[in-house]
Amino acid sequence: MVKFLSDSGSPLAINIYPFLSLYADPHFPKDYAFFNGNSTPIVDGSATYTNVFDANYDTLIAALEKNGFGSMPVIIGEVGWPTDGDINANIEYAKRFNQGLLDRIIHGQGTPKRRTPPDIYLFGLIDEDAKSIDPGNFERHWGIFYYDGPIKYALDLGNGRGLVAAKGVKYLAREWCVMSPEANLLDPNLTNSVNYACTYADCTSLGYGSSCGTLDARSNASYAFNMYYQTLDQRKDACKFNNLSTIAKLDPSQGTCRFEIMIDLGTHELPPSRSSSLAVGSNQNSLLLALLGLITLITYA
């Protein structure tokens, strides 16, 4: 494969996920997953590594050099940090990691083995509520934007530029499907009803350490019911869980736990003209955030 890419003049793309190193090993030094951490550096000959991103990248470069492909261009096909679904997947850590990554790009910082930084694709643009969670609940929460377009956290893209939230988003009615005040937590139908809702809607935010992980039992059920209700575009029959649910007009969101309202897919505002299309900041070289699919493309001109 590598020889084929070399013969055709193509780059090799790899994915680097420092979050997964932290997720897979509870003893992994947390600060080593970030670019501004205080963990003990790893010294490898004349090279010193202060973060796992550089170490992973240069491990590949060393292998390529050993096999005669030391000049092969290598790009980062995916890199990012999730914001929910695990105790280490949160907005604070995601902002810390992604801003650290952007700062390196803006300042043209490479790795000990390759001083010129590679092209990098930041994963991802928005969350994916139907993605497989076999690797973990965090898999649905890699986006830097919420599903409906608001910014999860600010990022400095250079030259005073930042992310821009989606405009003109229309929502369905401000109503939520919640557990009825008259319903009993000991109702024998409750467990099956919640399980049913979470089978067909995304309940990954309810897990331990997640944004809705501190809800009480009644609020847990309400969250599950509402996610199902919104996923089905607030269909009247989507809030009927064996007399356990009701429609509420008061937002039940609590703290970091956001009870969503589905966007109205039937109404849209016209997109802006070409002259007012999204642009983001750069260093001396252009730094472009391309809103393509579910990734953010960062390149060097």
TrEMBL record:
Its EC number is 3.2.1.39. GO terms for molecular function: glucan endo-1,3-beta-D-glucosidase activity. Gene3D superfamilies: 1.20.58.1040, Glycosidases. SUPFAM superfamilies: (Trans)glycosidases (SSF51445). The keyword Signal applies. Keywords: Disulfide bond, Glycosidase, Hydrolase, Signal. It comes from the Eukaryota. Pfam families: Glyco_hydro_17, X8. Residues 175-259 form the X8 domain. InterPro entries: GH, Glyco_hydro_17, Glyco_hydro_17_plant, X8. GO terms for biological process: carbohydrate metabolic process. It catalyses: Hydrolysis of (1->3)-beta-D-glucosidic linkages in (1->3)-beta-D-glucans. The keyword Disulfide bond applies. Belongs to the glycosyl hydrolase 17 family. This is glucan endo-1,3-beta-D-glucosidase.
